[in-house]
Amino acid sequence: MRNLSKSKLIAFRQCPKRLWLEIHRPELREDSAATQASFAVGNTVGNIARQLYDPQGKGVLLDAQRDGFDAVFKRSAELLSSDQPIFEAGYAIEGALAFADVMLPVWEKGKKVWRMVEVKSSTGVKDYHRDDTAIQAYIARKAGVPLASIALAHIDSEWVYPGRGDYRGLLKECELTDEAFSRTDEVAEIIASAQKVAAKKAEPKIVTGDQCGTPFACGFFDYCQAQEPQAKYPVHWLPRIQSSALREYIDANPALDLRDTPDDLLNPLQQRVKLHTLSGATFFDEQGAVAELEVHTLPAYFLDFETIQFAVPIWKGTRPYQQIPFQFSLHRLGRTGKLEAQAFLDLSGNDPSRCFAEALVEVCGKSGPVYVYNAGFEGARISELAERFSRLATALRAIKERLVDLHPITKANYYHPSQCGSWSIKAVLPAIAPDLSYEELDGVQNGGMAMEAYLEAIHPDTSDERKAEIERQLLAYCGLDTFAMVRLWQFLSGRHDLKL
Ligand code: SF4
Fold first, then answer.
1. Which atom of ligand 1 is nearest to 211's Cα?
2. Is 257:234 a contact under the CB 8 Å cutoff?
3. Candidate from 128, 206, 228 with most ligand 1 atoms within 8 A of CB, to mutate
4. I want to staple 71 with a disulfide (CB 3.0 to 4.6 A). Which of 67, 104, 222, 436 is the partner?
């Protein structure tokens, strides 16, 4: 029998095939950039947790990668007689092993026992965290640890960083002792079932489905999907599948093609996607689009933000995971058709928020529509800036009042088969302005890449030359976002008289 780690047991809970592949075909796994980024976030939160649970630095940090599993199991057992916090202590039983983020000695009725804390970078307790703590507690107790309690510490998204490296309050504990201790039989069953799957010679026959993205994006998805028949017109192109009848129908027919989807299960927008995707004909309600846009006169502004977020805030006055805008692009289209571009980008590494807000107020003028694509995002960021900077609040709220969202106008009036059911600006642009392309941009081509580029640019080790290159790429990317909106507006409003 092999010893399954806690992460393998959690993989089994997600999907037995995932566990089997993790063991027998690990080379097939391809973690997305988002998954890899989440590992890095977990490490950062783990480092802060060690400071918080051991402010005097008296604890012991074990390292199984460096010292080997057996050495860590032995040392972890020895340290149970000490009075020090232990980090990454390892425990093994027949068939399973686990490492505890934090072990704290506590005294109950004159006897030393231990409190275990699992640290997560999420902002709340999720179902798989409950499995995680139950498995963790089971293994530790079976291995002989006098465990008195177990808690899960997650990030408190309401906490505001006071600065000076003071992260007290960042983590919020949720007590899970009773629940974890009561699941002993269930965990034993999970381990036994996982062992049976791990011992199989052939991989389990399981088709892709909702489990592939919950609770984690599975790194074997491409492999699994390639084993399945591919729909020519995948049913996931249908927008916003909310009807339970449609969901049940799709779940019962995993390789479903749009052609086989009954019309009576589809709402009008889904029927439009089906009809125009299959026929190859574009849908364009030109009059409807013009009517929605002609109420907004020129001059008009076209605005787009880029933001960054940190699980562990680095700037005073900000919250964990707060979206902090560091860049905007703005195009101003005058009454005569004159187009002017403006931009703000702060790569200093300091909190860009105040300068961003000041620059925004300066370039947006006092009147005229401010077009955005998905107004909720820019609107929320403007509201947050108004809350933080009272002197600018009135002007910022006035800008928010002027936001006009091109996304619902596009969605209501236009669909090209090449959009494959998406109205993201990157899906719409090739249809209405094929001369513009994100793929031809050098370096930064999407929001995720913009975040990565920003982090690289503010890193102290980044050279001035590289920083200048990133600056160029970010300005080109964000500028294309707003110029794309200008062209989309022109297309929808029928203002082909303007030379843009
Ligand atoms: S991609 Fe889906 S079906 Fe394949 S192993 Fe992962 S969770 Fe299981």
1. 7
2. yes
3. 206
4. 67
Nearest CA to ligand 1 atom 1: 221
Does a cis peptide bond (omega within 30 degrees of 0) precede residue 234? no
CA distance 138 to 420: 47
Ligand 1 first shell, C-beta below 6 A:
14-15, 17-18, 21, 206, 208, 211-212, 218, 220-221, 224
Provide the residue-wise pLDDT of the chain in tens; the chain has 500 residues: 889 999 999 999 999 999 999 999 999 999 888 888 888 899 999 999 999 999 999 999 999 999 999 999 999 999 999 999 999 999 999 999 999 999 999 998 889 999 999 999 999 999 999 999 999 999 999 999 999 999 999 999 999 999 999 999 999 999 999 999 999 999 999 999 999 999 999 999 998 888 999 899 999 999 999 998 888 999 889 998 888 888 888 878 766 889 989 999 999 999 999 999 999 999 999 999 999 999 999 999 999 999 999 999 999 999 999 999 999 999 999 999 999 999 999 999 999 999 999 999 999 999 999 999 998 999 999 999 999 999 999 999 999 999 999 999 999 999 999 999 999 999 999 999 999 988 888 899 999 999 999 999 999 999 999 999 999 999 999 999 999 999 999 999 999 888 88
Which ligand 1 atom is the nearest neighbour of the CA of 218?
A: 6
Residues 8 and 190 sit within 8 Å (Cβ to Cβ): no
Q: What domains are defined for the chain?
A: 4-199 (3.90.320), 229-281 (no CATH), 288-493 (3.30.420.10)
pTM, two decimals, is: 0.88
Residue pair 173/153 in contact (Cβ under 8 Å)? The answer is: yes
In Å, how far are 6, 136, 144, 297, 386 from 367, measured between CA atoms? 58, 59, 71, 10, 18
